[in-house]
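hi! just following up on the protien thing from before. the input was this:
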Amino acid sequence: MNKLLKSSFLLALVLFCATELVMRIFFSGSMDGRFEYGYSPTSGFVEGADGMVRLVSAGGRKFRPQKFTKVPSPDTFRIMVIGDSVSRGPSLEAAYPWLVKEQMCAQGIKTECFNLGLPGYGCNRKEVVLRKALDYSPDLVILHINKNNEFEDEREFKRSQDFKGWHPKNWIMKSFLVRRLYEAQTEKIFWKWLPAVIRNQKAVNDMGDKSAVSQNGEKQREWAERVKKYAAESASLAKARNVPLLFIVQSYECKAGPGKYRLDDKGVEGLVRPLEGPGVYVLSMKEAFEPFLPAGLYNADGTHLKPEGHKRIAEAIVRFIKHAERHAIMCSSVPLTNVRSTPIAHLNNCFSSSTGWSPGL
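and the predicted 3d structure came back as:
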């Protein structure tokens, strides 16, 4: 009996070690940063020896698959859009970053626009993505901002800190296999295979927690201060790299009576508008959309955009860029879309918030 138990234990140990070895050899790319939950700066960015960068779903970061050269072409205007599920859109081709590229190219401006939208990302994790995106020399960064995902940022940060350090109690969790099994339990990955009655009896998720916390005035003030802090840090990061930054302030569709709607940005515009100035600009979805209400811009949740909504915000962004180009021509005789041959600091001195631009222009 003891011999059988010993043999079973050894077999289990060998299988465990073999599985762990396979995961580390063949799945190390997808596991890189897997347990950082969006706080690893390089997750999802795969830099190849051929000079190409590929955006992939890896390390807990679900980028839409895209690729681009690490060093941009001198005749191409490069835009990077960082945001959450709103800017990520229902598909790569239906989201407004893609439409911005199409509209710019249709106007004769060679443009590439990459969608770095990630579901559930708040201002902290967006800044992590921004830091890496700036390494790829964008001519313009668009940062889609709101305070709707701060709960998720808090939760994922706490998860990222679990089992850090080399205290003996954390040793077992250094195993990819054990950690993934632990994660599967907490995320209930395999629940879809269980009968619905069991899922209903045992179901536990944090949506109720998020709803409750969202009603907490003190927590709302804390999140507002966090958005303000990370927005300022993001603006400083872009300025330090001489990259213009455009904030897109998210707005939400709310019912204002039978057949009537209003837009609410939950006070976020007031948090970022003071940052506006040379090199830092603000586009309010509320201001851009209000002339078209009610026009079926939003899905039923009042947050995510229908195709018409993506089209309208893309048009507003292109108007912003064209206005900046016209102003740059007046100031320095060099357009914004030829920014690589222009000292960007000089361009930013030309184009400031006093140029009279608005989404409706």
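The chain has two domains: 2-31, 62-152+215-355.
The first helix runs from residue 2 to 26.
cheers
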